[in-house]
């Protein structure tokens, strides 16, 4: 089943990891598990030095973020939610400090979990129609603490607070201006070629020193983020909000909008 | 007496807190106390979701910062200074993590304490003739540690150090460029309408998730900043500098300038 | 011997510290020792309030960074390397928190150690042909932890990671854009006059408050950075990488390039 969601192309020294879970690449437990095991496989292969994350959907969507079914209390339960939370956050924390050089090739919609996946990468390239942010507040939800810390590192406290507290979404031009992305390409067609060109450029320097430097820069945050008991406490806390009547009602509204034709 | 310094207008879901202490809104113990009790009252009113800080002076002055009489050793004493220090810093630290969405509508002069009041807000709007900074060093004084930490968060280490170490004041255009403000309006007349429009925009998202996120982002700094024993030690240390002959002489010079006609 | 490498001009209230170690101001143990003792002398002289670091080479080179002979295991040994590491890093950490106002006048090449020397200064002025970065990764080496932390403070995490992990060098225009320098001048001839003008401007405010503020802002990092046992552990760790066959081979390649005519 994982194979249906992810397929990887191996190139010379790097891999392109394509995500395809119709219709919008929403990330459920199975998709996070598939991502996690695929990246572990690539990390174990010493011929692979870098990975590009790419959406294989035809629509302009990198990923719609977490699958709302995983957050909607009537359709899940505390135990499953805690497992979901742990797999997702330990994958993201581990990828943040991967020995691989990581590039996100972002086209179109990229809210919440999609933005966080891109934030843990070393380099972000996007199309002008991109829409990025950690917009959980718009649904009455909270942004996970370490997702916020990461956004603060990448764009600074001032922009991070605007994005988080007021659920502001950012387009490609603005994302480049505030360092949320590193490079803007003009079209979807130009995206993957630009990502591959970037990877080749970045890999011109040897891995030995870089991997050590990356670890010094990133291990402290990655370790705290992925800590098992911290995640268990955090997900128990989040569950209280998710199972409250007001949140359930807010997500009911999301489902109603999603079920309308012509979304 | 507080009522003479502050008057609040209640709007639909938010309040406008007007400051008016002639001639320049200099902030003495009574004004900080009035601000503190007014904000507590607004926070206790669940119909109020946001507050705008505004100067009701006719002159182009948001506030001139701390009243120099509170810092001038010959006219105060250690006990009063420590009380002043505590009230001011606990108010600012608490406002930094308020459940209210906070907007500063800054016109004209806004040195030191005025800038710090705006820095603890969620959003800063200003006129082009604004003059902001933490310019205590120009008087031979020090900037309080947590005021510096906050400025570093908002504009980054590089600009914060220039502003602090060399007492550089920043105008509206530059303030926008370095993220010291979030929005620039063209005139005093446009300021309050823009602040109200911003508040209405920001309040489109629900409070539930935002208040939790704000608390996660800001509570650590707010808690350290407002810690009673830390403040007592800090004010004792500051008093040494304030009561030194060289500082008293430097403030004598300020009084001489202030007493000149045509200030 | 130190006198041949460094000569200082005393001006009214400040000093210009000229570095001249032909051919490229590469920094060996003796040069770091000379810098350290010269700055201590200036700090002890209460008539001196600021220092400008300047290259006295004719070529467009601020400094080529650490002398590769100090890093090349076949020509040094663990004991000498540890001494080199300690002298260099304790000098830099101490200068970072100097009571003196410090300005770097950077012309031309300024890799690695040259960039770090400029990063500990309060103000950086450069020519357009400047080339700055912490490019150790290009040689398979690592950037010292506190050099990275300092770069993160100055330019933010996003640019710092690009510079460090991918050994990116930055020219004058880009350096100004990302706050790696504070002022760009148009030519070598304009550099030192601009640095002197800047110093005079910065010294218009009194030292008393500034020195305390600088200490509050910088002492925590400076103290950790210069800690003797931390440095001993770090240099032992670095020595493992430096004495590995792959690093020795990589530095052999550097020597081969350096020995070519027309470098």
From TrEMBL, chains A, B, C:
Alphabetized PROSITE patterns for the sequence: ENOYL_COA_HYDRATASE
Metal-binding is among the record's keywords: no
Pfam families: ECH_1
GO biological process, one term: fatty acid beta-oxidation
TM regions (residue ranges): none
Keyword Secreted: no
SUPFAM superfamilies, per database record: ClpP/crotonase (SSF52096)
InterPro entries in the record: ClpP/crotonase-like_dom_sf, Enoyl-CoA_hyd/isom_CS, Enoyl-CoA_hydra/iso
GO cellular component, one term: mitochondrion
Keywords noted in UniProt: Isomerase
MF terms (GO), sorted A to Z: isomerase activity
Source domain of life: Eukaryota
Family in the record: Belongs to the enoyl-CoA hydratase/isomerase family.
Protein name (database record): Dodecenoyl-CoA isomerase
Source organism: Boothiomyces macroporosus
Lineage: Eukaryota, Fungi, Fungi incertae sedis, Chytridiomycota, Chytridiomycota incertae sedis
Gene that produces this protein: ECI1
């Amino acid at each position: 089943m994982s194979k249906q969601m992810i397929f990887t192309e191996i190139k010379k020294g790097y891999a392109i990891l394509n995500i395809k879970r119709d219709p919008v690449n929403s990330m459920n437990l199975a998709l996070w598990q598939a991502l996690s095991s695929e990246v572990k496989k690539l990390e174990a292969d010493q011929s692979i030095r870098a990975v590009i994350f790419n959406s294989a959907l035809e629509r302009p969507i990198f990923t719609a973020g977490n699958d709302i079914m995983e957050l909607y209390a009537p359709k899940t339960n505390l135990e499953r939610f805690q497992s979901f939370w742990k797999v997702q956050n330990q994958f993201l924390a581990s990828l943040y400090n991967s020995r691989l050089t990581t590039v996100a090739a972002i086209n179109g919609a990229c809210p919440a979990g999609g933005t966080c996946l891109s934030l843990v990468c070393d380099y972000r390239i996007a199309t002008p129609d991109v829409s990025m942010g950690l917009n959980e507040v718009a649904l009455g939800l909270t942004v996970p603490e370490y997702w916020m810390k990461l956004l603060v590192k990448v764009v600074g406290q001032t922009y991070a607070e605007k994005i988080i507290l007021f659920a502001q979404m950012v387009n490609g031009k603005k994302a480049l201006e505030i360092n949320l992305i590193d490079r803007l390409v003009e079209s979807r067609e130009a995206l993957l070629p630009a990502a591959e060109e970037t990877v080749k450029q970045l890999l011109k320097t040897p891995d030995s020193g870089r991997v050590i430097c990356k670890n010094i820069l990133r291990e402290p945050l990655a370790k705290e983020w992925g800590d098992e008991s911290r995640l268990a406490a955090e997900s128990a806390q989040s569950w209280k909000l998710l199972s409250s009547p007001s949140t359930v009602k807010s997500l009911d509204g999301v489902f109603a909008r999603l079920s309308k034709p012509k979304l």
